[in-house]
Amino acid sequence: MSILQLNDINTYYGGIHALKGISISVEKGEIVTLIGSNGAGKSTTLKTISGQVLPKTGSVIYEGKDISKQPAHITAQTGIAHVPEGRRIFPRLSVKENLEMGAFIVKDKKVIKERMEQVFDYFPRLRERLTQKGGTMSGGEQQMLAMGRALMSKPRLLLLDEPSMGLAPVIVEQIFDIISDLNKEGMTILLVEQNAFQALQIANRGYVLQTGEIVMAGQGNELITNESVREAYLA
Ligand SMILES: Nc1ncnc2c1ncn2[C@@H]1O[C@H](COP(=O)(O)OP(=O)(O)O)[C@@H](O)[C@H]1O
Ligand SMILES: [Mg+2]
After folding, report:
1. Does the predicted TM-score (pTM) go above 0.85?
2. Signal sequence: where (predicted)?
3. Which residues contact 77 (CB under 8 A, 6 or more apart)?
């Protein structure tokens, strides 16, 4: 059984038909990537999953349950963590406070501390910057903080929206390495990227999204060598 399934999803912003009948699936333990140009509907797909926007028709099935109409704050408590495009950390809160926000439903201080230690295993930089205000961190550090905050909820499915956006190549490498490591430790990941080449390199499978429709699907290594994918997204 897939951990996540989108069946024929149609999502609108007023009169704008952003997702036009999208169907995708994610199996437990996979990295699945959704690639496509600016405006293709990648972020809208993640928002439809996490409940920030509701689909007009179609279903989102998570762990066998229909969550299509479930509000975001409930979905966030059922094992889906969404790291949004642009990170959206709390700029005036410290690194520690940002991380604590990710585990706000956990009351047990010991559990929070344990989870924070696990986050530091992936992002040692965050431990060094515990008291620093989120907004004064570099882009790469803010991405690490946003991912760390998401991990604090102990998700079973991690939604990542353009984690490499705006980062220097060496930092992008680090972020992708960490995404790979998280997956090797068992995390299921749906990764949205304009950086198609790097996303397809670490993904088991990928979908190509174009103006609200899936136009291609395949194994990561198939898509990376596909002529039309190369022309459109890897040039
Ligand atoms: N809040 C919004 N209001 C109106 N239209 C939106 C909104 N967010 C996105 N859109 C439109 O929906 C389409 C898909 O956008 P988006 O999902 O952000 O694409 P991507 O993440 O692939 O760049 C685009 O045409 C975009 O202009
Ligand atoms: Mg986007």
Report:
1. yes
2. none
3. 105, 153
